[in-house]
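Please check this record.
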Amino acid sequence: MLHVLDHPLGGHLLTRLRDRETPPVEFRTFSHHLGLLLAIEATRGLPVSAQPIQTPLEPFSGQRLAQGLVVVPILRAGLGMVTPYTELFPDVSVGYVGLERDHATAVARSYYCKLPPLAGKRVLCVDPMLATGGSAVQALDLLRANGAEDLSLVVIVAAPEGVAAVEKAHPDVPVYTAALDRELNASKYIMPGLGDFGDRLYGT
């Protein structure tokens, strides 16, 4: 269920994100562009229905999106991945899950949750970094408990440990990522990774 983005532009953008010399303003731009590629990849299988229209020259049977879409960022870093969906999809809804990782224990605690109706929708949980998988599994558990059935996880960088944790807890949930990195270090950071995504995104 792991889908790794295979596009030369994706590799280029990810390299710019990894570079510690990339300033926040450029980091946000590259994040947006890479998030756009991932959004297109993660929604490739959306169902469509026939849509008859009239072109300037003749009648035509086109297609329209036939399933509602919900994107749910894990706060705060996941906010940096939302805009591509709100720009591309006309009827997207946005929910929020607040999870904060304790840097000493690497365990996430929940501090906020606000969700639109999820039943019958394609639900995309977005978070830039899939490290231990603890936050992702906790968020996916919450989304399931609130009615999500058609559920995917979209991240920018993943560690093998995080992918394994998600596959164990939610074997039917596809994971879309721009890169599968080598490992977690002793502090549970992804290696080679790109540092703390939220700090680099917001210049904190």
Q: What stands out?
A: The chain is about 30% helix and 30% strand. The longest strand covers residues 48-54. Residues 128 and 155 are 5 Å apart (CA to CA). Residues 24-42 form the longest helix (19 residues).
